[in-house]
Amino acid sequence: MRAYILKRVLLAIPTILGAVTLVFFAMHLAPGDPASLFIPPDLPPEKSAELYAQIQREYGFDDPLYVQYGRYLTKLAKLDLGKSLREGTPVIKDLQRRVPHTLRLGLASLAVSALLGITVGVISAIYRGRWVDHLSMVGALFGVSIPSFWLALMLILLFAVRLQWLPPSGLGDTTLSWDGLKHMVLPVLVLGLGGAGGLARYTRSSMLEVINRDYVRTARAKGLNERVTILRHALRNALIPVVTILGLNFGFMLSGAVIVET
After folding, report:
1. In terms of domains, do 101 and 210 share one?
2. What is the model's pTM?
């Protein structure tokens, strides 16, 4: 197991380097110039050119691309992400202030999606072809298809504006309190329901693959309770590929949380 973990960690290094390189060059190939964003439109041309050159020198935009890339990797290895072009503050400070809230939201949403998705997928597989199965898959399809920003607006309209049960925005108390939980309910529901839809469909497919395997038939033939057979024998093996999907879903939730948080 140690060798396997070490191998996976070592393989992650070129993957991360490739992703970082791709993002770096993609940003430079994209149209637009970040330095021009700082120049007021009513500034005279000679002043604009002077300010533009100053910004280029300050941020190193006038260096050759390979020099910028090397400096970028060196600073990234030291966790120095530079300063924000918009606010002028260190980016790492902004991340330290904001990422914990996003992680809290992502972990809570992952728990909700896992609970709902796996439960619905297992029930759907057990009652394959029946109305429960059809209803579950229709619900999962809606969970996958509904845009998160639209669902967020609808939940705000219903629970915050009409019923006034939950706050429409804000962070609330960051500790584990009732006020903090109330502020988390709506965003967690939006992210969790979206992730649960795909997870339910994947869990159902995985369960259908193992539910008729020989070891499951043997467990039934030995007289084991159906609930024990499903949970201990079928579900345990069906969850092996589902865990991988959970990891991918967590990454998607962190990226989707940007829209939902806004």
Report:
1. yes
2. 0.73
What single-letter amino acid sits at 195? G
238 and 151, same structural domain?
yes
Q: Are residues 9 and 126 in the same domain?
A: no
Task: For residue 53, give Cα distances in angstroms to 77, 84, 209.
Answer: 28, 19, 63
Same domain, 104 and 218: yes
Q: What range defines the domain where residue 97 resides?
A: 93-261
254 and 129, same structural domain? yes
255 with 158, same domain: the answer is yes
Residue 40 dihedral angles phi and psi, to the nearest 5°: -60, 140
How many domains would you assign to the chain? 2
Cβ contact 135:145 at 8 Å: no
Same domain (yes/no): 76, 99? no
Per-position pLDDT tens, the chain of length 262: 678 778 888 888 888 899 999 988 888 887 777 777 777 777 777 777 788 888 888 878 888 888 889 988 888 888 888 877 677 788 888 888 888 888 888 888 889 999 998 888 888 888 888 888 888 888 888 888 888 889 889 999 999 899 888 888 877 776 677 777 888 888 888 888 888 888 888 888 888 888 877 777 777 777 777 777 777 777 788 888 888 888 888 887 777 677 787 7
